[in-house]
Amino acid sequence: GCHLWEIARKVLLLSHGQASVERGFSINKVLSDNMSNLTLVALRVIKDHISSVGGKATDVAMPPALLTATSSAHRHYQAYLEEERKKTGRVAEAEKRKHAQDEFDDLTAKRKRIQSSADALLASADDFAEEAEKSHGPSAVTLIAKSNAMRRSAKEKQSQIGEVDGLLSEKSKALKA
Q1: Cα(27)–Cα(7) distance, rounded to whole angstroms?
Q2: What is the pLDDT of residue 19?
Q3: Confidence of residue 24 (pLDDT cuts 50, 70, 90)
Q4: How many CB atoms lie within 10 A of CB 29?
Q5: Residues whose CB is less than 8 angstroms from the CB of residue 172 and which lie 6 or more positions away in sequence, other chains included
Q6: DSSP 15-28
Q7: Cα dist. 101→91, 96, 109, 167, 174 in Å?
Q8: In the list 17, 57, 157, 173, which could disulfide-bond 118, CB 3.0-4.6 Å?
C-alpha cells in the first residue's frame, strides 16, 4: 500500500501542461515584430539565462570574455550587414546578367528568323525572274513585278538585320562588361 501511495504521489506531482513553453511562444510573438530570427533567438537565450539566475539582470555574472564579446558585437554586426549587402548585390547582378543574356538570345533568334525570311524572299524573287525569262508577253511583266517586290521586301529584311546586329553588338558588349 505504501509503495503504491508513493507512486501515485509522484505521478500527481508531474507537470500536466506546457505553460513555460507556451509562455515562450507568447513572448516570441511579442518580440518577433520586425526582428530577424537571429535576433529573436539571441533575446530568448538572454531572457532564459536571466530567468535561470533569479530573474534579475543584476544577478548575471559578467566574465571578462563576455565583456570582450559585447565590445566587438557592433563590429561583427556591421560585418554581417556588409556581407548581406554584398550577397544582395551579387543576386541582383546575376539577375541583371541573366536578363541581358535572355535579351541577347531573343535578338539572336529574331535575327535568324529575319535572315530566313529574307533568304526565302530572294529565292522566290529569283524563281519569278527565271520564270519571266521563259515566258513572253504580259505574264512576263507581272512575274518581273513580283520578283522586284520580293527583292524590295528582302532588302527591308536586310535593313532589319542590320538594326538587330547593332542591338546584338550592344548586348554583347554589356555581357562582356
Answers
A1: 35
A2: 58
A3: low
A4: 9
A5: 104
A6: --S-HHHHHHHHHH
A7: 15, 9, 12, 13, 9
A8: 157
